[in-house]
Amino acid sequence: MNTITTPFFVMKNQIQNYAWGSIDSISQLFGIANPEQQPQAEIWMGAHPNGCSEVELNGQPCLLSELIAQDKARFLSQQTAAQFGELPYLFKVLAAAQALSIQVHPSKEEAQAGYAA
Question: Computed from CA positions of residues 66, 70, 75, 76, in that sequence, does the dihedral angle turn out positive or negative?
Answer without folding.
Answer: positive
